[in-house]
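Can't paste images in this forum, so I'm doing it all in text. The chain is below; anyone willing to post the predicted structure tokens underneath?
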Amino acid sequence: MTRLLRLVLTNFRNYDRLTWEPEGSPVVITGDNGSGKTNLLEALSLLAPGRGLRGARTAELRRHTPGTADRNTGQDTGETAGWGVSARFTDDRGPFDVATGMEEGQDGARKFLLNGTALRARTAIADHLSAVWITPQMDRLFGESASGRRRFLDRLVVAMAPHHARELAACERATAQRNRILSTQSTDPAWLSGIEDAMARHGVAAVAARQELVSRLNATGADPTGAFPSALLSLLCPIATRLAAEPALAVEDWLRTQLREARDRDRLRGHATLGAHRTDFALQDLETGRPAAEASTGQQKALLIGIILAHARLMSAPGTVAPMLLLDEPLVHLDAGRRAALMNTLLDFRTPVLLTGTDPGPFAPLRDHARFMRLHHGIFTDEGKGEGIPPEA
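Text version of the structure:
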């Protein structure tokens, strides 16, 4: 069992300074809009590999404080010099400390520390900590662009296989380099071939990791109780189609050839028309066969939660690091039966589980099991184990 013992936020989002020592799990955090509920979940998500539940840039995470003047211009920047998130956890191996943030004057990527020691690769955190989450923005997953669905899928892959982040970054760098070179009139074929080789190697590896996760999620199903529908995922990607029938090395050779032959077309369009960066995925209810894009908002939310629960169960298997569950407004769009089923399911997870909402009433099924906290402008009030919430709230 993994437990969150302490969380400290410094100059992060709307928090000047917060020190919180939760008493057990699950924790239900309620408060008005803008009180800092999502910010707190985001802070925890940043301790795991990846860019956090908002995917925000590092400079956006520091606390906004009107009246702070820029040293050179004298203008109000509204920003503090640095920010930090640190936490202490404990698991079967004992306590460990994880921290991330930026110091005053620091540029570039944020720092990661494990037990006070700086890490060269943030993926090293994955040996100790992982996280999955649901946010209200994800309710629009099936109606937004393919890039949004791709980011969602890649977050799930990174949680299972942290090296996937390196493959994605290398593929993105190579793709951007190729786009820049093609935008010029004079191009070196040998140079382009080297970049396309990197696109092929890293791109095929990235798609293969996506394909592996999709297969495992489809085999796992959603929810043993049947409260949430099982979803059938399928990758929409010519690279994935090839990988289903050919060895990876053969697919790499095919992709290199395709990229070479597409240079003139891609130069005119201004971007690569083939590669791992074009992957999309489709989702449908396994029982009814209805595509998620055609389902109601409530059914889409149920399918999404089904995927998250299946993924969390995969990561709870022996030999893996079970994830924190960070659920921002998870009950929105769910009917009463599925709300109760979700909360009952969460009691089985032996990891930190945090849920947020504007009102404690809908969380009544957890009144005897969860710790209820109230947030107001970044300040916590402990409301105990839901003593004030009637059973039928």
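Residues 1-130+326-393 form a domain with the Rossmann fold fold (CATH 3.40.50.300). The chain has a mean pLDDT of 87.
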